[in-house]
Structure formats: structure tokens, C-alpha cells
Amino acid sequence: MHRVTLSIPSDPAFERVVRASTAELGDTFGFEPDRIEDLKLAVSEAVNNAIDHGSKRQAHMPIDVSFSVNGEHLEVRVTDHGTGVDRIDWSRRVVEEDNLDAGMLRGFGMYLISALVDQYEVTSSAEGTVMTLRLLRKVA
Amino acid sequence: MAASIRREEQGDLAILRISMPSVDAISAAAIEQACADMRPITALDFDQVNFINSAGISALLKFVVQARKSGYKLFAINVSPHHQKIFKMVEMSRFMPIVAERDLAAYREPARV
User: Fold this and answer.
1) Which of B25, B61, B86 sits opposite A12 (nearest CB)?
2) What is the CATH number of domain B5-106?
3) Which of A59, A100, A114, B46 is the most buried (most CB within 10 A)?
4) Interior CA angle at A117 toward A112 and A122, to 5°?
5) ipTM (interface pTM)
6) How far is CA B21 from CA A90, B7, B11, B12, B52, in A?
7) Domain assignments of chain B as residue spans, ordered by start
8) Fold designation for A2-136
9) A8 neighbors A78 (Cβ within 8 angstroms)
């Protein structure tokens, strides 16, 4: 098991740092380019969710990201130190006329995570939220 | 217009070439500014884009909203296979069809004489 950890300020500019690290780790792990793109997007969504809804964009609050690699999977754990969330809506979300007309143009992130990674889970408490994503090594 | 988007105009057709690699929360404001540069037929060129997340999708939807309000046609060109997959997942392509750049001329109104 190898582990890489990052801690970034709750500022979307630093999400790009996590994304770049994700790409390098995905490549090191031997994922195909398309799966690396899936993982980059899923991690980006998890980090931005932590920044927006966990830390509420208070830059001084850190977002901790850990990557764990073993022979079977690459696991990414995104932790914020906010006050927790009641629930996360993972349901399918697509562009719809009614939402466009109502100016509701956001909310695709959790659905994208659920569709792009092999496993995902969330634990949340008054001390913060941890989102865990896993991509499995698939044997050809 | 933001320097990060290069605009080309041919009559009623505008091609907005996004020249930044990430369409995300950081670049969203610059991208949204280009909504003011739409024409009756507008194409967003993603040739230089290598990453789009949901914050970027939200920015792109501003173009969809503007096109619907104005009765404009909106297209996407030079979309990577990965981003085609993402657009399909969120059904973006229903509102911003992906076409080949060479085919844009077919959507233009014939010149009035």
C-alpha cells in the first residue's frame, strides 16, 4: 500500500493541484487514459463539493485529500472540516428545459461521481465529511 | 471579450474558440462573459479544452439559456471523446449538438438578395 496526502486551502484554485496529482497517480497506477479522465473529474467534483458545501469557501479551512494505492484499487479520500451534511443526492441529473428556464444550472457533480467511479461512500458528522472514491484495477 | 476566448465571425455565424485548457470554477466567469458575443448561429470550439467539470458545465449552460431566449442555434465543435461522453451523460447534447466544424455552414441562413 502506498499513500499520498495533500492538504489544500478551501479555494477552487487549488482543486487544480489535486486534479494534477490525480492524473499522475492514475498514470502511475496504470489506468487507461479515459479512466484517468473519469477519475480526475470525479475527484474534482468531490473536492469542489467539499470546498463549497463543507468549508463554505472559507479558504483557511483545509481540505485533506489522500490517495491510497494497492494492487486492487486506487482510493481517494476527500475530507472537509465543516459541520457535516444531512444527505447527498446521488440521483441522475441531466439538463432539462424546466431547470434551464428556472436558472437552475448546477447540481451535476454528485451524479457524475456516482457514474464515473466503481465505488463511493460518504460519512458525515458535526466534525466534517469524508467522501471516499475507488477505482478498481480491472483485469482484462 | 475575455482574451481566453477567441471569436471568429462570418455573417450570422460566430465561432467562440475556448483557448483555456480547463472549463471549471476558475475559468467559468471568463467563459460566461462570452455569452454577449453570441450570434444567431454560435459554435463553441473545445479543441483546446482538456478538462470540463460540473462548474464548467454550469457556465456552458449560460450559453444554452441565452440561445433559447434569443432563438439562436448553438453547437459544440471539436469535442474530445471523453467530453462527448460527459455531455451525453448530462444530456447537454440535446441543447448543444456536437457537429463537425466543416458542417456549420449548412446551418446558416441563405444570404438575402
Assistant:
1) B25
2) 3.30.750.24
3) B46
4) 80
5) 0.92
6) 28, 17, 28, 27, 9
7) 5-106
8) Heat Shock Protein 90 (3.30.565)
9) no
Q: Is B110 in CB contact (< 8 Å) with chain A?
A: no
**Cβ of residue A94 closer than 8 Å to a chain B Cβ:** yes
Please report which residue ranges of chain A form alpha helices under DSSP H.
15-29, 33-49, 97-101, 109-116
How many whole angstroms separate alpha carbon A117 and alpha carbon A38? 7
pTM of the model: 0.93
pLDDT digits (tens, 9 = 90+) for B14-29: 999 999 999 999 999 9
DSSP of A80-92: E-SS--S----S-
Closest CA to A40 of A76, A72, A10, A12: A76
Q: Where are the domains of chain A?
A: 2-136
Within 10 A of B54 (CB to CB), how many other CB atoms are there? Answer: 26
Decide if B108 touches A, using CB distance below 8 A. Answer: no
Cross-chain CB nearest to B61 (options A45, A105, A112):
A105
Grid coordinates standing for B22? 480547463
pLDDT tens for residues A117-129? 999 999 999 999 9
Nearest to A105 among B58, B82, B91 (CB): B58
**Cα(A114)–Cα(B63) distance, rounded to whole angstroms?**
26
Alpha carbons within 13 angstroms on the beta-carbon side of residue A27 total 6
Q: Do A44 and B68 touch (CB under 8 A)?
A: no
